């Protein structure tokens, strides 16, 4: 017995189909039911995402369909096309595989992005910048994008704050020194500079250099801080973060 169903079914749906066949087809106990799962946009995608979730192993960014770059567009001409008509460069929607992007057009801002994508992203973040102000900001954005491969929303907010709103500086980073050993805690010494020029230096230990450094900042600033996200990136990607 051979059956064919669309390959965009989930694992649960596929199993339910076979169960329905066994429950409703007379004499099915005398028949071999053969199934073949297509390795395309359906079950393989679901299985890949589930393996990533439960194992903690990240799929490489350039992996087709499920990789982080599969629905990301950095080139200016691609971004312009996506903003005008999404199916220009996408044969399927990211939502079909359960990937809901912060940007509906899948814009990834980088050194190849143009003003159209930058203006759209800024507007989505609540900043209506146009004209000469946008042009000046665009070149500041490009200079940062040359150093840092991917510009995040947080990076843009920081850039807008620096370039447009000029926020009051309370603390400035001065210096940091860390000591790590194979066994034992890491130690960090951090120097911060207050708005009046006063230098504050303190040290602390932690379960790693990053943990130790942030504990020192907590000691100096005396503010309640909650870590929302942590990831290890190579230096080029970590700049500005």
Characterise this structure.
There is one protein chain. It contains 8 helices and 3 strands; from the N terminus they run H-H-H-H-H-H-E-E-E-H-H. It is of the alpha+beta class. The protein has a 3-stranded antiparallel beta sheet. The protein folds into 3 domains: 1-62, no CATH class; 76-165, no CATH class; 171-238, Double Stranded RNA Binding Domain, CATH 3.30.160. Mean pLDDT is 76; it is low at 235-241. 14% of the residues are buried. The longest helix is centred in the middle third of the chain and has 17 residues, at 131-147. The protein is flat and about 85 Å long. 39% of the residues lie in helices and 11% in strands. A hairpin with a 4-residue loop joins strand 2 (186-194) and strand 3 (199-206). The chain has helices spanning 11-24, 43-55, 76-84, 115-124, 131-147, 153-165, 209-221, 235-238, and strands at residues 171-179, 186-194, 199-206. One of its GO terms (molecular function) is 2-isopropylmalate synthase activity. InterPro entries: 2-IPM_HCS-like, 2-isopropylmalate_synth_dimer, Aldolase_TIM, LeuA/HCS_post-cat.
Structure in a nutshell:
The protein has 241 residues and is of the alpha+beta class. The protein contains 8 helices and 3 strands, in the order ααααααβββαα. Helices cover 39% and strands 11% of the residues.
Oligomer: single chain
What is the total tally of β strands? 3
Widest sheet, order of strands? 1-2-3
The coarse silhouette is: flat
Name the structural class.
Answer: alpha+beta
Q: What is the helix tally? A: 8
In helices, the fraction of residues equals 25-40%
Largest sheet: 3 strands, antiparallel
CA-to-CA gap between the ends?
A: 57 Å
**For the CA atoms, what is the radius of gyration?**
25 Å
**Spans of 5+ residues with little confidence (pLDDT < 50)?**
235-241
- Report the average pLDDT across residues: 76
Question: How many domains?
Answer: 3
Strand content: 5-15%
Helix-strand pattern: HHHHHHEEEHH
GO molecular function: 2-isopropylmalate synthase activity
Keywords: Transferase
Domain 2-isopropylmalate synthase LeuA allosteric (dimerisation): 151-232
Domain 2-isopropylmalate synthase/homocitrate synthase post-catalytic: 65-149
